[in-house]
Amino acid sequence: MEQTKHAKQNLLKQGEVEKAKLEIQEKERQTLLANLQKKQKGIQSEIRKKKRSAEQLNAQIDRLIELEIEKARKRAEEEARRKAAAEAAAKAAGS
Fold first, then answer.
1. Angle, CA 10 vertex, CA 9 and CA 11 arms, to 5°
2. Which run of H or E residues covers position 47?
3. Cβ atoms within 10 Å, residue 90
4. Measured distance CA(19)–CA(37) in Å, rounded
5. How many CA atoms lie within 13 A of 16 on its CB side?
6. Is 17 helix (H, G, I), strand (E, B) or coil?
7. Nearest 10 degrees: Cα torsion 60, 62, 67, 73
8. Structure pTM?
9. Least confidently predicted of 11-20, 34-43, 66-75
């Protein structure tokens, strides 16, 4: 009977030790999870910033392209006017 009592006490102690280990592991897991969630938020924030920056850069590039297209169109119009004026002058001189 004494042997059974010791065996039960040993099992009880082992159970308490295991429970304590599991509690420590759970706390470590919770800490790790909290740290990972914090890092995830930071990374998501950084991604949003970079996305906004890329969108602004793309908009700026689009504006510059439009300006260059407009400049090219105006140069072409001016060249066409000069050519037409030169042709008109040549016709007038030839008459």
1. 90
2. helix 2-94
3. 10
4. 27
5. 6
6. helix
7. 170
8. 0.60
9. 11-20
